[in-house]
Design brief:
10 strands, 5-stranded mixed β-sheet, Immunoglobulin-like, alpha+beta, 2 helices
């Protein structure tokens, strides 16, 4: 077969192969771990053991934030990641993030946290959902999470 015909014969195969590669990149970027802007997203379900502890029962994303089903576990959060928490007992156990002086940074209840208006943090609450992006500034201030009604429901937070 003449070399020109071989090229023409394999050209459609090459076009399909490169087209599929682009589609795979799109699928990988939209698999639930990143938003349309490439921001990493970690979804967590946070439950409670009565009024004594919070625990994480599920984590979806590419970070191992904490051990599952461990009361008041330490969380390891990463700067630049967006965290979307579903706090299953939120009405009786409003969730908040605090600094080392136990001042509220972000909160589910009527207490205004000092980072709630920060556009880069993009704090949002809706029912039992608590979402924020961990900026370097928030990470520098962040120390722990707590129930604003039952202060024994608290755990440490480290940041990377």
């Amino acid at each position: 077969m003449n070399p020109f015909k071989r090229i023409l014969l394999f050209l459609p195969v090459l076009l399909i192969a490169f087209s599929c590669e682009d589609d795979m990149e799109d699928v990988m970027n939209n698999d639930g771990n990143q938003d349309d802007n490439g921001v990493n997203i970690v979804e967590m379900t946070v439950g409670n053991s009565g009024a004594s502890a919070y625990f994480v029962s599920e984590i979806n994303g590419n970070e191992e934030v904490t051990s599952l089903n461990e009361d008041n576990s330490t969380w390891a959060l990463t700067v630049g990641t967006r965290y979307e928490l579903n706090v299953t007992g939120a009405s009786a156990h409003p969730f908040a993030l605090r600094d080392t002086n136990n001042e509220i940074l972000l909160s589910m209840n009527s207490t205004d946290g000092s980072f709630e208006g920060n556009a880069d943090v993009n704090f949002q609450i809706s029912g039992s959902n608590f979402s924020f992006t961990l900026t370097q500034e928030l990470a520098d201030a962040l120390d722990n999470y707590v129930c604003t009604i039952h202060l024994g429901m608290s755990g440490s937070i480290t940041t990377n």
